[in-house]
Protein backbone atom coordinates (compact mmCIF):
# COMPACT_ATOMS: atom_id res chain seq x y z
CA UNK A 1 0.00 0.00 0.00
CA UNK A 2 2.78 2.43 0.94
CA UNK A 3 4.69 1.77 -2.29
CA UNK A 4 1.61 2.53 -4.37
CA UNK A 5 1.22 5.82 -2.52
CA UNK A 6 4.88 6.70 -3.08
CA UNK A 7 4.55 6.39 -6.85
CA UNK A 8 1.50 8.66 -7.00
CA UNK A 9 3.07 11.50 -5.04
CA UNK A 10 4.54 13.36 -7.99
CA UNK A 11 1.36 13.63 -10.04
CA UNK A 12 -0.46 14.60 -6.87
CA UNK A 13 2.06 17.39 -6.23
CA UNK A 14 1.78 18.76 -9.76
CA UNK A 15 -1.99 18.78 -9.62
CA UNK A 16 -1.96 20.84 -6.41
CA UNK A 17 1.07 23.17 -6.93
CA UNK A 18 1.77 23.53 -3.20
CA UNK A 19 3.11 26.85 -1.92
CA UNK A 20 6.34 26.31 0.02
CA UNK A 21 7.60 28.91 2.47
CA UNK A 22 11.38 28.46 2.47
CA UNK A 23 13.72 30.22 4.84
CA UNK A 24 17.00 28.82 3.66
CA UNK A 25 20.69 29.61 3.38
CA UNK A 26 22.04 32.24 1.02
CA UNK A 27 24.43 29.86 -0.73
CA UNK A 28 21.64 27.82 -2.35
CA UNK A 29 18.47 29.89 -2.16
CA UNK A 30 18.20 30.23 -5.95
CA UNK A 31 18.71 26.50 -6.53
CA UNK A 32 16.05 25.66 -3.92
CA UNK A 33 13.56 27.97 -5.63
CA UNK A 34 14.30 26.60 -9.09
CA UNK A 35 14.09 22.95 -8.12
CA UNK A 36 10.73 23.58 -6.45
CA UNK A 37 9.48 25.18 -9.64
CA UNK A 38 10.83 22.26 -11.68
CA UNK A 39 9.05 19.65 -9.57
CA UNK A 40 5.78 21.57 -9.81
CA UNK A 41 5.63 23.48 -6.53
CA UNK A 42 5.52 27.22 -5.88
CA UNK A 43 8.46 28.61 -3.86
CA UNK A 44 8.40 31.71 -1.65
CA UNK A 45 11.45 32.86 0.28
CA UNK A 46 9.84 35.09 2.90
CA UNK A 47 12.37 35.52 5.71
CA UNK A 48 11.29 38.84 7.19
CA UNK A 49 10.68 38.44 10.91
CA UNK A 50 7.77 40.86 10.59
CA UNK A 51 6.11 38.85 7.82
CA UNK A 52 6.98 35.18 8.38
CA UNK A 53 4.14 34.41 10.80
CA UNK A 54 1.38 35.74 8.55
CA UNK A 55 2.91 34.43 5.34
CA UNK A 56 3.45 30.93 6.71
CA UNK A 57 -0.29 30.69 7.32
CA UNK A 58 -0.77 30.96 3.54
CA UNK A 59 1.67 28.16 2.75
CA UNK A 60 1.12 24.42 2.27
CA UNK A 61 4.53 23.50 3.69
CA UNK A 62 7.55 25.11 5.36
CA UNK A 63 11.25 24.45 4.75
CA UNK A 64 13.73 25.79 7.30
CA UNK A 65 17.46 25.50 6.56
CA UNK A 66 19.92 26.87 9.13
CA UNK A 67 23.00 26.78 6.89
CA UNK A 68 23.77 30.53 7.05
CA UNK A 69 21.76 31.47 10.09
CA UNK A 70 21.30 35.19 10.76
CA UNK A 71 19.47 36.94 13.59
CA UNK A 72 16.69 37.94 11.18
CA UNK A 73 16.32 34.36 10.00
CA UNK A 74 16.24 33.08 13.58
CA UNK A 75 13.34 35.36 14.44
CA UNK A 76 11.53 34.54 11.20
CA UNK A 77 11.97 30.79 11.73
CA UNK A 78 10.51 30.97 15.21
CA UNK A 79 7.47 32.76 13.81
CA UNK A 80 7.16 30.26 10.98
CA UNK A 81 7.25 27.29 13.36
CA UNK A 82 4.57 28.88 15.50
CA UNK A 83 2.25 29.52 12.55
CA UNK A 84 2.83 26.07 11.05
CA UNK A 85 2.05 24.43 14.37
CA UNK A 86 -1.18 26.38 14.77
CA UNK A 87 -2.49 25.39 11.34
CA UNK A 88 -0.94 21.90 11.12
CA UNK A 89 1.22 22.84 8.14
CA UNK A 90 4.00 20.30 7.44
CA UNK A 91 7.40 21.64 8.48
CA UNK A 92 10.75 20.33 7.28
CA UNK A 93 13.86 21.27 9.27
CA UNK A 94 17.30 20.98 7.69
CA UNK A 95 19.78 21.20 10.62
CA UNK A 96 22.78 22.17 8.49
CA UNK A 97 26.03 22.37 10.44
CA UNK A 98 24.55 21.33 13.79
CA UNK A 99 27.20 18.64 14.19
CA UNK A 100 29.99 21.21 13.80
CA UNK A 101 28.47 24.23 15.59
CA UNK A 102 27.03 23.29 19.01
CA UNK A 103 25.07 26.57 19.29
CA UNK A 104 22.78 25.33 16.53
CA UNK A 105 21.56 22.46 18.68
CA UNK A 106 20.36 25.04 21.18
CA UNK A 107 18.58 26.98 18.47
CA UNK A 108 16.86 23.83 17.22
CA UNK A 109 15.68 23.12 20.77
CA UNK A 110 14.26 26.64 20.87
CA UNK A 111 12.49 26.11 17.55
CA UNK A 112 10.87 22.97 18.90
CA UNK A 113 9.57 24.88 21.91
CA UNK A 114 7.57 27.07 19.49
CA UNK A 115 5.91 24.16 17.70
CA UNK A 116 6.29 20.75 16.14
CA UNK A 117 8.84 19.68 13.55
CA UNK A 118 7.33 17.11 11.20
CA UNK A 119 10.45 16.09 9.27
CA UNK A 120 14.12 16.31 10.16
CA UNK A 121 16.11 16.09 6.94
CA UNK A 122 19.89 16.10 7.12
CA UNK A 123 23.04 14.14 6.50
CA UNK A 124 23.87 11.31 8.86
CA UNK A 125 26.37 13.39 10.82
CA UNK A 126 23.68 15.96 11.58
CA UNK A 127 21.11 13.33 12.48
CA UNK A 128 23.53 11.62 14.87
CA UNK A 129 24.40 14.94 16.46
CA UNK A 130 20.72 15.62 17.17
CA UNK A 131 20.42 12.13 18.63
CA UNK A 132 23.41 12.70 20.92
CA UNK A 133 25.51 10.06 19.14
CA UNK A 134 29.19 10.60 18.36
CA UNK A 135 29.85 11.30 14.69
CA UNK A 136 32.48 12.59 12.28
CA UNK A 137 32.02 15.72 10.18
CA UNK A 138 34.04 18.20 8.13
CA UNK A 139 32.23 21.51 8.28
CA UNK A 140 28.71 20.85 7.03
CA UNK A 141 29.69 17.54 5.40
CA UNK A 142 29.28 14.18 7.08
CA UNK A 143 32.24 11.79 7.18
CA UNK A 144 30.20 9.17 9.00
CA UNK A 145 30.19 5.75 7.33
CA UNK A 146 26.74 5.00 8.70
CA UNK A 147 27.11 1.56 10.22
CA UNK A 148 24.46 2.31 12.86
CA UNK A 149 22.54 4.83 10.78
CA UNK A 150 19.22 2.99 10.62
CA UNK A 151 19.04 2.44 14.36
CA UNK A 152 19.93 6.06 15.15
CA UNK A 153 17.37 7.43 12.69
CA UNK A 154 14.65 5.16 14.03
CA UNK A 155 15.36 6.14 17.63
CA UNK A 156 15.41 9.88 16.87
CA UNK A 157 12.11 9.53 14.98
CA UNK A 158 10.55 7.86 18.03
CA UNK A 159 12.01 10.35 20.49
CA UNK A 160 10.94 13.43 18.51
CA UNK A 161 7.72 11.86 17.16
CA UNK A 162 8.59 12.90 13.63
CA UNK A 163 9.97 11.55 10.37
CA UNK A 164 13.74 11.40 10.10
CA UNK A 165 15.30 11.46 6.64
CA UNK A 166 19.06 11.05 6.38
CA UNK A 167 20.75 11.58 3.03
CA UNK A 168 23.87 9.67 2.09
CA UNK A 169 25.18 6.96 -0.20
CA UNK A 170 22.09 5.08 0.92
CA UNK A 171 19.27 7.36 2.08
CA UNK A 172 17.36 6.44 5.24
CA UNK A 173 13.76 7.59 5.74
CA UNK A 174 11.83 6.45 8.79
CA UNK A 175 8.94 7.31 11.11
CA UNK A 176 10.41 5.02 13.74
CA UNK A 177 8.32 2.04 12.70
CA UNK A 178 8.51 1.84 8.91
CA UNK A 179 11.94 2.41 7.39
CA UNK A 180 12.85 2.81 3.72
CA UNK A 181 16.34 2.73 2.25
CA UNK A 182 16.69 4.51 -1.09
CA UNK A 183 19.62 3.26 -3.14
CA UNK A 184 19.18 5.71 -6.04
CA UNK A 185 21.65 8.51 -6.62
CA UNK A 186 25.03 9.37 -8.10
CA UNK A 187 28.35 10.54 -6.70
CA UNK A 188 28.07 13.72 -8.78
CA UNK A 189 25.45 14.93 -6.32
CA UNK A 190 28.33 15.48 -3.89
CA UNK A 191 30.17 17.70 -6.39
CA UNK A 192 27.68 20.56 -6.49
CA UNK A 193 26.93 22.93 -3.64
CA UNK A 194 23.41 22.65 -2.37
CA UNK A 195 22.25 19.22 -3.49
CA UNK A 196 21.19 18.53 0.08
CA UNK A 197 19.41 21.86 0.35
CA UNK A 198 17.56 21.21 -2.91
CA UNK A 199 16.54 17.81 -1.55
CA UNK A 200 15.18 19.45 1.58
CA UNK A 201 13.17 21.90 -0.49
CA UNK A 202 11.81 19.04 -2.61
CA UNK A 203 10.79 17.21 0.54
CA UNK A 204 8.76 20.21 1.67
CA UNK A 205 7.15 20.43 -1.75
CA UNK A 206 6.01 16.82 -1.67
CA UNK A 207 4.82 17.10 1.93
CA UNK A 208 2.84 20.23 1.11
CA UNK A 209 0.80 18.28 -1.42
CA UNK A 210 0.00 15.36 0.90
CA UNK A 211 0.22 16.03 4.61
CA UNK A 212 -1.92 12.95 5.29
CA UNK A 213 1.00 10.66 4.39
CA UNK A 214 4.25 12.45 5.09
CA UNK A 215 6.30 9.24 5.03
CA UNK A 216 5.29 8.48 1.43
CA UNK A 217 5.96 12.11 0.51
CA UNK A 218 9.45 12.04 2.02
CA UNK A 219 10.37 8.79 0.30
CA UNK A 220 9.10 10.13 -3.03
CA UNK A 221 11.22 13.27 -2.69
CA UNK A 222 14.40 11.31 -1.99
CA UNK A 223 13.58 8.94 -4.83
CA UNK A 224 13.05 11.88 -7.20
CA UNK A 225 16.39 13.45 -6.33
CA UNK A 226 18.23 10.15 -6.64
CA UNK A 227 16.78 9.22 -10.02
CA UNK A 228 17.22 12.74 -11.39
CA UNK A 229 20.84 12.63 -10.24
CA UNK A 230 21.40 9.34 -12.06
CA UNK A 231 19.87 10.69 -15.26
CA UNK A 232 21.81 13.97 -15.05
CA UNK A 233 25.08 12.07 -14.65
CA UNK A 234 24.29 9.98 -17.74
CA UNK A 235 23.79 13.12 -19.83
CA UNK A 236 26.90 14.66 -18.37
CA UNK A 237 29.09 11.54 -18.55
CA UNK A 238 29.83 12.10 -14.87
CA UNK A 239 32.58 14.63 -15.44
CA UNK A 240 31.56 18.27 -15.03
CA UNK A 241 29.82 19.68 -11.93
CA UNK A 242 28.58 22.87 -13.61
CA UNK A 243 26.64 21.20 -16.39
CA UNK A 244 25.54 18.41 -14.02
CA UNK A 245 23.78 21.03 -11.90
CA UNK A 246 21.85 22.28 -14.93
CA UNK A 247 20.96 18.76 -16.06
CA UNK A 248 19.79 17.92 -12.53
CA UNK A 249 17.13 20.60 -12.54
CA UNK A 250 16.08 19.59 -16.07
CA UNK A 251 15.75 15.96 -15.02
CA UNK A 252 13.62 16.91 -12.02
CA UNK A 253 11.28 18.66 -14.46
CA UNK A 254 11.13 15.58 -16.71
CA UNK A 255 10.19 13.11 -13.95
CA UNK A 256 6.80 11.41 -13.81
CA UNK A 257 5.16 8.66 -11.75
CA UNK A 258 6.12 5.96 -14.25
CA UNK A 259 9.80 6.90 -14.16
CA UNK A 260 9.78 6.89 -10.36
CA UNK A 261 8.20 3.44 -10.27
CA UNK A 262 10.40 1.90 -12.98
CA UNK A 263 13.71 3.36 -11.77
CA UNK A 264 13.22 3.11 -8.02
CA UNK A 265 15.65 1.18 -5.84
CA UNK A 266 13.78 1.10 -2.53
CA UNK A 267 14.34 -1.40 0.26
CA UNK A 268 12.12 -1.62 3.34
CA UNK A 269 13.77 -2.84 6.54
Automatic annotation (TrEMBL):
Pathway note: Cofactor biosynthesis; thiamine diphosphate biosynthesis; 4-methyl-5-(2-phosphoethyl)-thiazole from 5-(2-hydroxyethyl)-4-methylthiazole: step 1/1
Cofactors (names): Mg(2+)
One of the record's GO molecular function terms: hydroxyethylthiazole kinase activity
Enzyme class, spelled out: transferase
Record-linked Gene3D superfamilies: 3.40.1190.20
Catalytic activity: 5-(2-hydroxyethyl)-4-methylthiazole + ATP = 4-methyl-5-(2-phosphooxyethyl)-thiazole + ADP + H(+)
Keyword RNA-binding: no
Annotated residues for binding of ATP: 121, 167
Pfam families: HK
Keywords associated with the record: ATP-binding, Kinase, Magnesium, Metal-binding, Nucleotide-binding, Thiamine biosynthesis, Transferase
Ranges that cross the membrane: none
Family annotation (HAMAP family): Thz_kinase
Entry function: Catalyzes the phosphorylation of the hydroxyl group of 4-methyl-5-beta-hydroxyethylthiazole (THZ).
Membership in a protein family: Belongs to the Thz kinase family.
Name by which UniProt lists this protein: Hydroxyethylthiazole kinase
Protein encoded by which gene: thiM
